[in-house]
Amino acid sequence: MDGARVDIARYTRLVAQDENALNLLVGSPVSSALLPEALSNVTPPKEFSPGMSSEVLLSRPDILSAEHLLKASNANIGAARAAFFPRINLTTAIGTASADLSGLFKSGSDTWIFSGQVVMPIFDARTWSALDATKVQRDIALTQYEKAIQAAFKEVADALAVQGTAEEQVAAQQSLVDAIAETYRLSNLRYIKE
Description:
With 194 residues, this protein is mainly alpha-helical.
């Protein structure tokens, strides 16, 4: 009888953990009306073919996120490379100038200034370091993208492996529940009469 109580506690805990995982997946608490009351109400997942195109994985949120991070890191490399190009600043000013305020607007006090500045960042070590850092970040993003794709393929392979045995597992679990319920009923009848 204690074994049955241990099983009840364990299965109650597993159901609670599964409900928590479902709530996390949905993003809000799932109504109890949507949850099955018994194992017989559980429908097996839809059949999918092992020959299905792997392009369907491209719409997974984890892969899309990794892909966007990879694109962003490539854009950062482009920006870091653009920082190597020389920058030329031209500045002009036109106005009047005088040593004293009374001569500011007299004829001959017109002035203009033209200045230029050229920055050659190719010789700046910080620019090279920034380019190296963005390349490393791109390599990290590429590795994360590859990892997301590998995880997706593993999850699909796991789902294909489970697909063939899911119905058998549900039937065996229902048989176990029925057997434990019958054992519990018989134990109660035996000890209540005595």
